[in-house]
Design goal:
single chain; 270 residues
Length: 270
């Protein structure tokens, strides 16, 4: 698995950044993107110092959410099989989980896009944003714990692997699936149903539409991002690995928006 610093292990400046991310993203957890950066000495701290103005102002989140809200979902024809034997309470929990990831993914795409601009050598020279009065939306309810990959059955690990992405020789399994693994029948179904859908032309078109919108929003936000403090530079080690991780999230974050909403619809139909 891609290295991460768990929220429970965070301390000092990183713990403070984690708290700000939870508040400003309006969710009860910190995504694996930031947890991975935190596992690399100095990277999350530098990234947050550079990018925080765009998120404290709410500009980046609002832009990302607006792009995702207007996305056209691909037609799937998927219907949750009755043998999943899920109660209405199960489906409500699954939908709440998916809603959280649908909320987070566009913001992470904005974060990753802005960070990529910096790592490509672009220097922000914008005026910043006036005031700090933006109020995040009401946070989503707490999420169940992600499963420990090492303690899962062979079948569970196989299903999770089908839903993962290779990053610099390590496997990245999005947190959505690591939580939904608490319903083994659901995970098994998704492990079979989603990979073919991921390569369908309609899904590829939806992903491209989302990324075009995000890229345009990133440019608008970066143009307003204030200059870095004098002498600020990214940590010396790990730049290529960070860029590889950002590239991977550019694949998985659109999937969270598209597939998260599709899974929500599955529950609505059941």
């Amino acid at each position: 698995m891609l290295a991460e610093l768990p929220e429970d292990d965070a301390a000092g400046e990183i713990a403070g950044i984690y708290g700000e991310i939870r508040r400003l993203w309006a969710v009860p957890y910190v995504s694996s993107l930031q947890r991975h950066l935190a596992s690399r000495p100095g990277w999350l701290e530098w990234s947050w110092r550079a990018l925080a103005p765009a998120f404290v102002s709410g500009a980046a989140q609002t832009s990302g959410w607006g792009v995702a809200e207007h996305l056209t979902l691909p037609p799937t024809g998927l219907i949750a099989p009755t043998e999943l034997c899920l109660t209405s309470s199960d489906w409500q929990s699954i939908q709440d989980i998916c809603f959280s990831f649908v909320r987070v993914a566009p913001v992470n795409l904005m974060f990753a896009g802005l960070l990529r601009c910096l790592l490509k050598g672009r220097n922000p020279v914008g005026p910043g944003w006036q005031g700090d009065n933006w109020v995040p939306p009401k946070p989503m309810p707490p999420l169940p714990q992600m499963v420990n990959m090492g303690t899962q059955s062979v079948e569970q690990r196989s299903a999770l692997a089908k839903l993962g992405t290779d990053v610099d020789g390590e496997q990245l399994v999005p947190g959505l699936y690591r939580i939904l693994a608490q319903w083994p029948a659901v995970l098994a179904y998704l492990g079979d149903a989603l990979p073919p859908l991921a390569s369908a032309p309609e899904t590829i078109a939806a992903r491209a539409e989302l990324l075009r919108g995000i890229d345009a929003a990133v440019e608008e936000i970066f143009a307003q991002l204030p200059p870095l403090k004098t002498g600020a530079a990214p940590p010396r080690d790990g730049r290529d690995g960070v860029l590889a991780a950002l590239d991977a999230y550019r694949l998985t974050s659109p999937e969270m928006v598209i597939f998260g909403r599709i899974i929500i619809c599955l529950g609505a139909r059941d």
